[in-house]
Structures are given as C-alpha cells and as structure tokens.
Amino acid sequence: AQSVTQPDIHITVSEGASLExxxxxxxxxxxxxxxxxQSPGQGLQLLLKYFSGDTxxxxxxxxxxxxxxxxxxxxxxxxSVHWSDAAEYFCAVGMDSSYKLIFGSGTRxxxxx
Amino acid sequence: DSGVTQxxxxxxxxxxxxxxxxxxxxxxxxxxxxxxxxxxxxxxxxIQYYNxxxxxxxxxxxxxxxxxxxxxxxxxxxxxxxxGDSALYFCASSPRRLFEGYTFGSGTRxxxx
Lengths: 113, 113
What we know:
The structure holds two protein chains of two kinds.
Chain A (H helix, E strand, L loop, with lengths): L2 E3 L4 E5 L4 E3 L2 E3 L5 E7 L5 E7 L5 E3 L5 E5 L4 E6 L8 E8 L6 E3 L3 E6 L1
Parallel strand pairs in A: 2-12
Antiparallel strand pairs in A: 1-4, 3-9, 5-6, 5-10, 7-8, 8-9, 10-11, 10-12
Chain B lengths: L4 E3 L2 E4 L5 E6 L6 E8 L3 E9 L2 E5 L6 E5 L5 E5 L8 E8 L8 E2 L3 E5 L1
Parallel strand pairs in B: 2-11
Antiparallel strand pairs in B: 1-3, 3-8, 4-5, 4-9, 5-6, 7-8, 9-10, 9-11
C-alpha cells in the first residue's frame, strides 16, 4: 500500500536561512508526488508536483523539490526562508489508476525573525 | 480564490444532529474528493466521486455519506454527530488525470458540542 512519511513534525529556522523538509514514500512504481502548503485556517495550496522527467522540480514561492528514486524521497527545499513561509507543509503521493492522494502527517514550519 | 467553493465555512451543532456540507468543484473538474482534517488523525481521505459516480472510499464512517449531482457539485452528509467528528472538512477537485494535482477549497470547520 502507498504511504508517505514526513519525519519532522516541527522545524524552526531563522529568516533568511535555507530550508529542507523531508518526505519519504512507499510505492512500487514511480508515483505522482506533490507538496502542498497550508496556512492557518486556510485550505491546502499546491506548491509543486512531480510525475516524470527532470527530477528537480520548481514550484511557486521559490520552492523546489528533488525526486530521488533510490531513496524514495521527495524533499522540499528553499534557499532563503521568509517569515511568510511559516505554515504547515504536506507531502502527498498518488497513482493515476486510483486518483487518490495519500498525504503525510505534515511538517509545521516556524520562522524566527 | 482556488475555484473550489465550500459552504458553510463554519458550522456548530449538537451531538446527535445531522449536517450537510456542500462543495462546488473548479470549473471543468469532474472529480471531487472529501478529506477530514483533525489534530490527532491528520488529513484523512473520506471518499471520491467522479462524474457522479463513487470512485473510491477511504476511512469514511457509516454515519457519513456523500453524493455528486449532475451539475458536479457534491454534498457530504454527516449524521448522528459525535464530539469526535469535530474537524475541518475539505473538498478538493481535479481533472481526469491526477498529474495536475488537487485544488482544495478553504474547508468547513465543524464543531460538535
């Protein structure tokens, strides 16, 4: 069965510092992979996605993620964090045959001034 | 505005009652998904409809049901409500292919008292 693990429940970084949020998935074939962001009281917004091709994908708000098949990982990165990036981040995996996305438990990002 | 509309935004009701949550998908999207988000369970997939037909079921209680109407809007019915049903309920929509990801609504916050 598909599963997604986000090992870090909380991460705190200083404004201007780099960020990496970890995501590991379990799935036999190459899945569709997504990162979503949720600000307090808001819905989830798609940051970026991967389904084939270049393993480094660019998203909105300056985020990028790298698909590493050998490690079953799809980590999210940002070179310089802004205070407005404080939110909860969700990694998700899906396969086209089911149209269903499985979400990780989320990582809450706190940004120190 | 994501294009997915959920109503109402907030709902407070008593235990044992029944409520209906409504979702209008993004224009052109045929699939609708319902998710429940709570502090202890995270983001849980409930059910998916595609063009009026149930496509997949997740961790949906028997007290909950959903349907998708010919105009593609969907309703999630929650009955015999319990305190533990208090959560954020999200609707998302997608086109036929998953690679575009989901577009989420802003959610309905249900409080059962």
